[in-house]
TrEMBL record:
Coiled coil: none annotated. Keywords: Membrane, Transmembrane, Transmembrane helix. It comes from Vreelandella sulfidaeris. One of its GO terms (biological process) is molybdopterin cofactor biosynthetic process. This is Molybdopterin molybdenumtransferase. The chain crosses the membrane at residues 20-38. The lineage of its organism: Bacteria, Pseudomonadati, Pseudomonadota, Gammaproteobacteria, Oceanospirillales.
């Protein structure tokens, strides 16, 4: 992950990883709360998703 400001206008920049799952996790954990704060919104609680697998999952 990278963050900073671009150019003289100081445009905020956030660079995310390339893996689609890593992008989603990084966005939800870091970027979404940052955007809330930049827009003057209170931080929202983390989203929880419940899922049921249709097959057994083995530990690695």
């Amino acid at each position: 992950m990278a963050y900073g400001w671009l150019g003289e206008s100081r445009t905020p920049f956030v660079g995310l990883p390339g893996n689609p799952v890593a992008v989603m996790v990084t966005f939800l954990q870091f970027v979404a709360p940052l955007l809330d704060r930049l827009h003057g919104q209170p931080m929202s609680p983390p989203r929880r998703l419940h899922a049921i697998a249709d097959h057994l999952l083995k530990a690695a």
